Every structure is written in structure tokens, then in C-alpha cells.
Amino acid sequence: MKQLWLALGCSAVLGMGQVYAAQPTDINYCARGATALGVKYSTYTVRCSDGKNREITSWDGRKKWCVGTSRTCTNDQLKAAKMACLQKK
Q1: Higher pLDDT pick, 54 / 19
Q2: Interatomic CA distance for residues 7 and 4, integer angstroms
């Protein structure tokens, strides 16, 4: 019986880690730029609930949103901001 309660307690504590994951609290436009090939993009700063600022970029007229300059992309600004906040930096 003791082992059952210990297992339940550990799983509850591990599950709480996802609840407290950093979330975006603010997204601000930062700058506009272009690659060496002339592809235009915009940079945004994301403020996360853990107090850190992270960067996302928009491409193709804000149809594609990426975490920083990586290839981790989505078609939604908020999803990209959430992915950025989950990154460890």
C-alpha cells in the first residue's frame, strides 16, 4: 500500500511540471529584414512567463512563424511563441 501512495505522489509531482511550463505573455514587433537571397521576414520578441525574452520570425507575409531563425515552424503566431517559451536557453 505504501508503494502505491509513493507512486501516485511521484506521478503527481512529475505531472505538475507541465502545468508550470513557461507560456508567452507578450509578443512585440521588433524589426524587418531580408536574407541574402532577398527573402523578407519580420522579427518579434516574445516575453515568457519565466521572465525570459525569446525571438520568433514571420515569413511569407506572416503565413509561416518560426522559433528564432530555426526550422522549427508553424502556421500560427501563438503556437510559435509557445514553442519558443518551451525552449531551454
Answers
A1: 54
A2: 5
- d(C-alpha 38, C-alpha 40), whole Å: 6
Q: For the chain, report the end-to-end CA distance as a whole number of angstroms.
A: 41
Rounded (5°) CA angle 70-15-18: 30
Integer Cα distance of 6 and 8 in angstroms: 5
Residue 73: all three cell numbers together:
515552424
Q: Answer whether 0.90 is exceeded by the pTM.
A: no
Here the cell at position 6 is 509513493
Helix intervals (H) in the chain: 2-19, 77-86
In this structure, what DSSP letter does residue 64 have? Answer: E
- Report the C-alpha gap between 79 and 73 in whole angstroms: 9
pLDDT band for 5, please (50, 70, 90 cuts): very low
